[in-house]
Design a protein that fits this description.
The protein has a two-stranded antiparallel sheet with strand order 1-2. It is globular. The longest helix is centred in the N-terminal third of the chain and has 29 residues. The chain starts with a strand and ends in a 7-residue tail after the last helix. About 70% of the residues lie in helices and about 5% in strands. It is an all-alpha fold. Strand 1 and strand 2 form a beta hairpin. It contains twelve helices and two strands, in the order E-E-H-H-H-H-H-H-H-H-H-H-H-H.
Length: about 300
């Protein structure tokens, strides 16, 4: 400190007080805020969060341990199982899924033999379907058994070949391809419905099911594909020749297959058909077989130009 002499004795200089006052002011106004308190507050908040989650977990566990909630969950699961059983039962009534599995039980050997039988049925002798314990064997074990694999794949392949034919003629469009597929499907459904109505009117007691008729009616797509492909590769004359061959083959195939289903046992054994009812069955069999070439030509003639 600086002290100066005065008449009254020693006296402190005023600049010392100013220096002290400036030091006091610096303590009052800091350059940086103290965040230690805020940090501790945030840490306190974070520490409180696990406690909240634990409290929520305890409340959820208490809710699950509540007898009323357990009863509601059990009642809801029972309603869901009953609804699933009801849906499966009604679905199986209209769409027999268990029976559909039988029609798709095929293998490569069966498909090859069946395609050969559809194209050349003249040398085949035994047309009866084999049975095992009053139920027909799977198609992969019997070439005479109807299936849905070949008709399904035939329909899809027919639509693709039709698109190819339209594309080679610069007439392809998605709308036209959709019309082609929908028209083929509608004609197939109408054919099956007409056969079912005819069987009802003639009062034929047969083991033919709707799926069997759908399978037999779908076999004509094989001949249609052969005709269209031959026409695309070799011209219109090849289309007509191959289509005539396939039409004759499918006619013979349908006659020899359906006569065991529609005609009486005497007619199936080759004896003379007598009686009005048997004659109606014979006419119905001939009509179903004769309708196949008509549909084959109607659905393919416009694809070859």
């Amino acid at each position: 400190m600086d002290y100066t002499a005065s008449p009254g004795g020693f006296r402190q200089q005023p600049n010392m007080r100013l220096r002290n006052s400036s030091m006091d002011g610096s303590d009052g106004s800091q350059l940086f805020d103290d965040t230690s308190g805020a940090g501790s507050g945030s840490q306190t908040g974070y520490r409180n969060q696990p406690g909240g989650s634990q409290a929520a977990g305890f409340s959820g566990q208490s809710l699950l341990s509540d007898p009323m909630s357990n009863l509601a969950m059990a009642y809801g699961s029972s309603l869901a199982s009953q609804g699933r059983e009801m849906v499966d039962k009604n679905l199986d009534r209209f769409i027999p899924i268990s029976k559909l599995k039988y029609y798709f039980a095929v293998d490569t050997v069966y498909v090859g033999k069946k395609l050969g039988l559809l194209v050349f049925p003249y040398m085949h002798e035994n047309w009866e379907v084999s049975y095992q314990q009053d139920s027909p064997v799977a198609p992969r074990f019997d070439v005479n058994a109807p299936d849905l694999y070949i008709p399904t794949m035939g329909f899809i392949t027919y639509v693709l070949v039709a698109g190819l034919a339209l594309g080679t003629q610069n007439r392809f469009s998605p709308e036209l391809l959709g019309v082609q597929a929908s028209s083929a499907l509608v004609w197939l459904i109408m054919e099956v419905l007409a056969v079912l109505l005819s069987l009802y009117l003639v009062t034929v007691n047969t083991d033919l099911t709707t799926i069997d008729l759908l399978a037999f009616s779908g076999y004509k797509y094989v001949g249609m594909i052969v005709g269209v492909v031959a026409g695309l590769l070799f011209g219109r004359s090849a289309y007509y020749l191959s289509l005539i061959w396939c039409c004759a083959a499918i006619f013979v195939f349908m006659i020899r297959t359906l006569r065991l289903k529609l005609l009486s046992e005497a007619a199936a054994e080759g004896r003379l058909v007598r009686g009005t009812r048997n004659q109606l069955r014979m006419y119905l069999t001939m009509s179903i077989a004769a309708a196949q070439p008509i549909f084959m030509y109607w659905l393919t003639y416009h694809l070859i130009r």
